[in-house]
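Ticket reopened. Same input as before:
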Amino acid sequence: MPYVAPVAEQRFVLDHIAGLAEIAAHERFAAASPDTVEAILVGAGEFAEGVFAPLNLPGDRAGATLTAEGVVTPPGFREAWRAYVEGGWNSLAAPAEHGGMGLPFVLAAAVQEDLGSANLAFSLCPMLSTGAVEALARHGTAEQQAAWLPKLVTGEWTGTMNLTEPQAGSDVGALRSTATRLPDGRYAISGTKIFITWGEHDLVDNIVHLVLARTPGAAAGTRGISLFIVPRFNADGAANDAYCSALEHKLGIHASPTCVMHYGEQGACIGEIIGGEGEGMRAMFTMMNVARLNVGLQGVSIAERATQAAVDYAQSRIQSARAGAASREPVAIIGHPDVRRMLLRMKALTQGARALVYFAASQVDRAAAGEAGAKARADLLTPLAKAWGTDIGCEVASLGLQVHGGAGYIEETGAAQYFRDARIAPIYEGTNGIQAADLVTRKLGLEEGATLDRLLAEIAAAAAVAPPLAMLAEAVAKDARWLHGASIDDRLAASYPFLTMLAVATAGMLMARQLSAADGEGPFLAMKRAACRFFLDRIVPEAPGLSAQVSAGAAPLYAVDDEAFRA
Amino acid sequence: MPYVAPVAEQRFVLDHIAGLAEIAAHERFAAASPDTVEAILVGAGEFAEGVFAPLNLPGDRAGATLTAEGVVTPPGFREAWRAYVEGGWNSLAAPAEHGGMGLPFVLAAAVQEDLGSANLAFSLCPMLSTGAVEALARHGTAEQQAAWLPKLVTGEWTGTMNLTEPQAGSDVGALRSTATRLPDGRYAISGTKIFITWGEHDLVDNIVHLVLARTPGAAAGTRGISLFIVPRFNADGAANDAYCSALEHKLGIHASPTCVMHYGEQGACIGEIIGGEGEGMRAMFTMMNVARLNVGLQGVSIAERATQAAVDYAQSRIQSARAGAASREPVAIIGHPDVRRMLLRMKALTQGARALVYFAASQVDRAAAGEAGAKARADLLTPLAKAWGTDIGCEVASLGLQVHGGAGYIEETGAAQYFRDARIAPIYEGTNGIQAADLVTRKLGLEEGATLDRLLAEIAAAAAVAPPLAMLAEAVAKDARWLHGASIDDRLAASYPFLTMLAVATAGMLMARQLSAADGEGPFLAMKRAACRFFLDRIVPEAPGLSAQVSAGAAPLYAVDDEAFRA
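Engineering reply: fixed in the latest deploy. New output:
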């Protein structure tokens, strides 16, 4: 079942949720004319459908492999990457002064969604690369930008993010890689990094690694960390002392090489610092916030693909007559109530997650254009978009597999691949638990709570015209007040259920807005209304029940000691 | 992390939920003396830990393979099977008159749980075989029983169930395999079956296939189906015309050969009928009901294993200091509130599902011993145990993967295998959607609703002493009344959310009972109380929100036409 880019849906959400016209009214995003937006959505859709999507299943089977010559990508990936670069798809949101098109991030997100739906493993490569562009564009010197950005922007080169080490996962501050200043101002880098996505591959001539390391005598924890440009090949063309020793054997995203990277084993790995010593986490966080939204988007991507496949299967698989129907002829299973419930749930969750992620992404553009409050709103929404978006990706992929019945458990149908691929997204770029902790420790207090209060007020206003939201809006507001006065342990114990409630409430508000805007004829609008109603009438009422977990507090979790967990 | 059989927990649930002492008081189950029960729980646990568990990860890697000599199981499986047979583990619940030990099914279920935790793929072989024993013991002639049962009971031979054909999955009545009566009273079998678990393998000398087929001129649908014994080797030792042409490439349970089976391609496949023509579904259903409980049990098995692995990881993985703690030293992640929340949720769900499945299994024994009402209760509980038990298996395996963070996505830790293996259980032995349909179409009306009413009354009584249950008990009772008067479409549209509510309410009742019984010192009872409280205080309150989906009805699902699902 071929992937079809959901252009009408993306356009609808960009118009009615992201407010793309408002964003394009800013001088900075003048390039985003209606014609350009339409051309990009259609063109990117066709590219994803025609070039990336056909490589998804074979890419999963072949996987990326490590050979004596380095990491080899699956057949067809090199040609597809060349087409991607030549099509200019890598440069959409990059700043015009560095050769990019300067388009809004939220529009680039729609394109990234297509790539992820078509081929999640492949789409990680440009996603990480875009993060490196972002970091260099914001924090690099003019010289560094001139040296590295042009080819990173086009996609002739790619970039990576190097944070994790065996003992430093969620706790980035525990990393031990070192960077020692050389007489010429550059640094000698030494250390091992793990879980480096697209850390080595054969798509391009050069890979620009952004590596976090610690300078001698630096402070403990994250304050002592600096960020370095460590190219595979230096500006003079000499190979750097950096290599990939192994690829991980993963549950999914097999075509994406997840590398163990060694820097400076021969004592000859050279890097340049970005910003000053000790400023690495700040620079990395500018990459990570955008990356977190992009990972939330992966949940949308995989949910969209899984839904399309399930609809396709349910329309073609004939099995059993409708219960109670006059005809005893078997029907396509989409006709059976519980299958239809699963499909509508998939549609509703996917649309809700897309609305939330685009809404968050649009705040990044509004902030860049100087709109007041947008930066804080983006910061508040980012953990919701990342965690809930990726949870939804897993749930929808699992429902999709279930719709397929026995065929879903067989790898040939693809449903199982979506299920496997989706499962990484709640883990990387900060586990969803880390997102929840971020929400309750840093984000609720933004602008002394005003950012949250404004969002809650908008949810309450939406509830006034969409009654099913009312109970949830009240529960979330009450729990937010409770969290405000709670101990750090209680806040953390409550963090995940509270995040889910707030995310569902926000998505519910956005679905209510879409329902209001979805007046008119035709199958797209009919399905939009049905999905919005399903979300409001059936999914929103599931969330208030999480409130019991918020107020239950941390103490019961510690009523048993660690050892009793083995009993 | 080695598997450790949860003997104390199993013993507790057998005592306080299954009422094993009451069951053993029946003459029929006199063999189940306290000493015997203890010896079996301990011995089976040791066997599962020592023999089946070490083969789990290597079995997943090697998988079952089809060679020119037939299906080859992974290294070590043949020896492990021999040890299993020699230990007498296959014959626990088989009738004494056929060489079995005549022990209660619920005790055999505890053993089956261990085998499934240790090695889910392997455990399918005895599980299916036990079903064949059940069908032959109940419906076979004395001659058939003498010919096939002795070696099936010991495990020297194994049995299979052959229902599914490419066009006949959930709709068994659509099957087309044929059986034509021969002059000697036997039948010539012809047809292709798919998804046949352990349909061919190298563990034993003979495999006894139980095959559903249609006799010439038989009625359409399920009424025209008969059941046949089709041994790989006939009683005279001659090979039957039956072979496996392919194995499926599955998401998980790789060590379990899932076969495409061809019967009678040479026109020489001979079978014997079990019961009369047209009585096949009745015989198959006696196998299937027990098989459905055993599949619900697989959810418990995989949840137990995933929980143990996650606890192990969380106690050994050191990462980050406790937020707000005086010490800045990193701690084992089990110390972090959200990780602890996940682990306790895993414990609570696993214990809740175990209680529900054992409770249902104990009704089978009570029914066999002639207790009034037990048969109907077993029938009502079976779809709950199968569907909710397997949903819990998937949720807990997913949480377990999440606790592992990035390491969980790497196949080496095993967490990913549990996640993959768990996902088959909501599909086979009747998808969970089929279970939900069975609940609302056949089971709610058992004894004119009296079976359900008695269960609801017990839940309400438990709610009186466990207040968090009260809201759910009311919601379930209200929804049950609504369903009673609802159209078939409305009932089916409501079926899945209603099944989940009723299952959580029933498990909640059983957790409340366990909480009352869990007085005393020591880590086991402390964890039992904590898990019961977590279930009642945090999981039960999630369920009433599903009520909105019950009463929302089917009409909104059909407000959009089939084609709009592609829009």
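The beta strands of chain A are 65-67, 70-72, 158-162, 178-181, 187-197, 207-214, 225-231, 242-247, 258-263, 270-274. The first strand of chain A starts at residue 65 and ends at 67. Please confirm and we'll close it.
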